[in-house]
Amino acid sequence: MDKQQEAQQSDARPVLEGPDIARVLTRIAHEIVERAKGADDVVLLGIPTRGVFLAQRLGVKLEQITERKIPVGSLDITMYRDDLRMHPPRALARTEIPGDGLDGRLVVLVDDVLFSGRTIRAALDALNDLGRPRAVQLAVLVDRGHRELPIRADYVGKNLPTSLRETVKVQLAEEDGRDTVLLGAKRSARGAQQ
Amino acid sequence: MQRHLISAADLTRDDAVLILDTAEEMARVADRPIKKLPTLRGRTVVNLFFEDSTRTRISFEAAEKRLSADVINFSAKGSSVSKGESLKDTAQTLEAMGVDAVVIRHGASGAPYRLANSGWIDAAVINAGDGTHQHPTQALLDAFTMRRRLVGRDAGIGQDLAGKRITIVGDILHGRVARSNVDLLHTLGAEVTLVAPPTLLPIGVETWPCEVSYDLDSTLPKSDAVMMLRVQRERMNAAFFPTEREYSRRYGLDGDRMAKMPEHAIVMHPGPMVRGMEITAEVADSERCTAIEQVANGVSTRMAVLYLLLGGNEPAVAHPSPTTTLATRRSAPASEFRTEEK
Amino acid sequence: MSKILIRGAKVLGGEPQDVLINGSAIEAVGQGLSDEGAEVVEAGGKVLLSGLVDLHTHLREPGREDSETVLTGTRAAASGGYTAVFAMANTFPVADTAGVVEQVYRLGQEHGYCDVQPIGAVTVGLEGKKLAELGAMHESAAGVTVFSDDGKCVDDAVIMRRALEYVKAFGGVVAQHAQEPRLTEGAQMNEGVVSAELGLGGWPAVAEESIIARDVLLAEHVGSRVHICHLSTAGSVEIVRWAKSRGIDVTAEVTPHHLLLTDELVRSYNPVYKVNPPLRTERDVLALREALADGTIDIVATDHAPHPHEDKDCEWAAAAMGMVGLETALSVVQETMVDTGLLTWAGVADRMSVKPAQIGQAKGHGRPVSAGEPANLTLVDTEYRGSVDPAGFASRSRNTPYEGRELPGRVTHTWLRGKATLVDGNLA
């Protein structure tokens, strides 16, 4: 990380801290159980990288609430992106579909930030090739607005009105060593900012 | 930056590991109900085969189709090529039809290199076997198979083949598979031993980054994988070995020899196998033989190569100097020399 | 008669002198010469050599006029400082009869850029089976004295023996293209480290050396002389050195490209480096230079082998073998032999003019630069350095391995029997 990036990151201000994130996930878990009437057929699919960790955490919370095993998997959308031709090819992440598959289940996609909606569109395309869920829902930690496609989230941890000049960076303990959501000025290090 | 895959020697360790890791993800597509990805939608790939090789061609074709590329198969037999049209004209004709990549199989060593470096065409060139030179995707699928079996499917991600002992047995002289494998396995940190009768080893093999042995039996106990290469019966007529029987006695792999290998060691074969020549049916059909797996892995590996070369706006696999081969990496002999060196 | 006064030329690289040409002959050589009516050429320290003689040129006419003709080939020769070239027999039809050799000879005389001395085929159709009418070719207007199946080896030991014996009757010489055919089936390049990596069929040194060894022994046995074309390996040098020490009447040539280039260049798969015999290793190159310096190898011959663009603009295996060489030979020899201190300019004149003329019996060529001798001369600007631009070639073909390479030396003037064929680098 060069000096400029560091400086920009230090400008970033936290909008959610560790305890907030835990609380938000607990709420989302309860909402899922409520809307899915017990979450009997729920499958959680996280979108790499951080969506996978959020899905795993949600899965744990759902299991605590329902006292049942909740299938959790991951869905890499790289090969379905609509901007492939605009960048060098990206390394692929793992797609892991839980053993019983997706057919007839309620799939809840989990991602860290909802922004343009293009990632979710790619995820819906990918799902299409993997099975036929009963329904698909979307859970995100942060919805920062600026949708470019007619996509909305079913479960939102925090609505965060942002300017296009700002960046939202989610950090999770599993990947980054701590839990936080940072709102900062545009163009610092690439990665999980959206 | 080039957009071609001509020689296994052009791949760095990181390139090769990225391809293998990507292939591991591609392999999972084969387990899905819909074995298809939209990644190369709208891209056109031509399989330009100047030599018959149904296996390699359908493997590439399956990989291209699974990535949703438009595929044109061009077989030189019965085409204008057999009437004297040159490689250059053929390639330019195809490119005029809007081809993004050319997968080329050619009997002349260096033909893919020429195609990629002569300014004849702009399309990406993937070498699907040229003469007795290189067959890089075969080496990649072999390395992929070794990593899965010897390191592990998940444990292998991000890993190379450091310290693995690989023995390659058979016709090294006429074999592009052996050349590619020596280059790639060396890059991946494996220790390679070539075993063949001296007649089937090229002059100059002593400069390759591998060991050479004429004795199979002493090599087997020290092998994690033994790769048997096809030996064409016709070689007998050119005095490369006296008889088929003598060849298989000295260099063929049978059940007794396989028993000398460590328990975890695997037997590999790029196919097509000549049963009774370099490999007995007992070995070919055993659990330890990965020949069929290699075919399946070929599709995943070629998907990975196609994705990494064509999936973005520029390739993810970097190329060093196009002429880099195994010897130039170790030392750089002067290609000509001037007065002051005299 | 026209007179030309060349002022201040380093004759064979010596102290500057003046040379006066009167008509077709040299009238005087000395300091401070003057002649009122003479056209003056200020040499300004350039080196004056006897006109170069190439014992190994492919002019391609008749049959492959798309790659070279006698006219374009002799213009290329004049540009390179040559006053006589020996035209190889592998034309279509093959130069295996008096008719074909006379035609080539006459074309050379008509164009007037350079004497063309045809080489006759040893065997009918270069097929190695039946002796061609060597005597008839010798007695023709072309007066053939050198016979070669170049491009193919006279590999049958009996045919070779008979040819060596037969030409003794009229003082001819057989020039052998030494290549054992069975050892070079499918050969694409030098067999060694590079061929092993590139997967190109190997052309082993032993395929050349075994034929040379056989032929020097045959020459000794029948008491004839033999000339070895384009010797390319360190082992061949050893054999020729041994044969000469035994008193065997053998002469040998080396090409400029074998003095400079190695098989490492083949890594580019660029067929411009495809040639027969193939480019060898650094060790071979150094041995060839040393052998040319010490006289084991007698002469430099170009093996000028023009090919049309399409025969090189293809994959390696499909490409034709050969390189053009007439217009770059002297520069390569300066680079590899003179600038390295291995050979003086007098030595260059010996290896590129005197000896080839002797071997081929080219009358009036390779003579000393002195009064009374024919005015076959070439003037070289040895201080020049420039990169090779094939677009400027007089040859019809452009298949040079030196494109873009900086080489020293430039021929500025060539005189054929007193007539300028090249003036200030421009063909007359």
Order of helices and strands of chain C: EEEEEEHEHEHEHEEHEHEHEHHEHHEEEE
SSE string of chain B: HEHEHEHEHEHEEHEHHEHHH
What structural class do the secondary elements of chain C suggest?
A: alpha/beta
| Tally of helical segments of chain C | 11
Oligomeric form of this entry?
heterotrimer
> How many distinct beta strands of chain C?
19
Distance between the termini of chain C: 18 Å
Uncertain residue ranges of chain B: 319-342
Query: Which consecutive residue ranges of chain C, at least 5 long each, have pLDDT under 50?
Result: none
Please, how many domains of chain C?
Answer: 2
> What is the share of helical residues of chain B?
25-40%
EC number (chain C): 3.5.2.3
Pathway (chain C): Pyrimidine metabolism; UMP biosynthesis via de novo pathway; (S)-dihydroorotate from bicarbonate: step 3/3
Pfam families (chain C): DHOase
Domain Dihydroorotase catalytic (chain C): 45-233
Characterise this structure.
The complex is a heterotrimer of chains A (194), B (342) and C (428). Chain A is of the alpha/beta class and 194 residues long. Chain A has one domain (17-84, 92-164): Rossmann fold (3-Layer(aba) Sandwich). Chain A has helices at 3-11, 18-35, 50-66, 118-128, 173-176; strands spanning 13-17, 42-46, 72-74, 106-114, 135-143, 155-159, 166-171, 180-185. In chain A, the strands form two sheets. Chain A has a five-stranded parallel β-sheet with strand order 3-2-4-5-6, sandwiched between helices. In chain A, strand 2 (42-46), helix 3 (50-66) and strand 3 form a beta-alpha-beta unit. Chain A is globular and about 45 Å long. The two termini of chain A are 18 Å apart. The model of chain A is unreliable at 188-193 (pLDDT under 50). Mean pLDDT of chain B is 89; it is low at 319-342. Chain B is built from twelve helices and nine strands. With 342 residues, chain B is an alpha/beta fold. Chain B folds into two domains: 8-135 and 294-320, Aspartate/ornithine carbamoyltransferase (Rossmann fold), CATH 3.40.50; 136-292, 3-Layer(aba) Sandwich (Rossmann fold). In chain B, strands 7-6-5-8-9 form a five-stranded parallel β-sheet, covered by helices on one side. In chain B, strands 2-1-3-4 form a four-stranded parallel β-sheet, with helices on both faces. The longest helix of chain B is centred in the C-terminal third of the chain and has 20 residues, at 291-310. Chain C is of the alpha/beta class and 428 residues long. Chain C has two domains: 3-47 and 373-389 and 405-427, Urease, subunit C, domain 1 (Roll), CATH 2.30.40; 51-360, Alpha-Beta Barrel (TIM Barrel), CATH 3.20.20. Chain C has eleven helices and 19 strands. In chain C, the strands form four sheets. In chain C, strands 1, 2, 3, 4, 5, 16, 17, 18 and 19 form a nine-stranded mixed β-sheet that branches. Chain C is globular, with a radius of gyration of 20 Å. The chains are: A alpha/beta (194), B alpha/beta (342), C alpha/beta (428). Chain B binds chain C through residues 86-88, 106-111, 113-114, 117-118, 130-134, 176, 179, 202-205, 207-208, 323, 325-328, 333-339, 342, and chain C through 188, 191-200, 202, 204, 260-262, 264-265, 267-270, 282, 285-286, 289, 310, 313-318, 335-336, 339-342. Chain A: InterPro entries: PRTase-like, PRTase_dom, PyrR, PyrR_bifunctional. Chain A: A motif (PRPP-binding) lies at residues 107-119.
